[in-house]
Amino acid sequence: xxxxxxxxxxxxxxxxxxxxxxxxxxxxxxxxxxxxxxxxxxxxxxxxxxxxxxxxxxxxxxxxxxxxxxxxxxxxxxxxxxxxxxxxxxxxxxxxxxxxxxxxxxxxxxxxxxxxxxxxxxxxxxxxxxxxxxxxxxxxxxxxxxx
Length: 147
Hints:
It contains 7 helices and no strands. The longest helix has 24 residues, at 46-69. By secondary structure, the protein is mostly helical.
């Protein structure tokens, strides 16, 4: 399970004296515990754990953007280091070409011919590709194929 992998990562980071990785792993473990308490479960499923990691990735990306705009490269660099660690736990995302193939098939299946039904196509694709593709990539592909 993903949680067990992260707990082992804490041990490995301690032995390697990798303080950044250790901090990220401990924060993830705390987030897992908080989520388990909120959901009143003993242990989270891998899907629930991935949702927490994705949330952390999104937070880091937002922080990097804000720090870069604010001229704080030092803070942005530390967020980038944390982001790279978190991304190692996420499954590989689909390429735009793979998304385009699925989107074209769904467009034909749903008989969508114009932009007014873009929301329907987007919604259907996001349900099907949940966790496999970035939302921004899906959106750009939908806009491309409907133009």
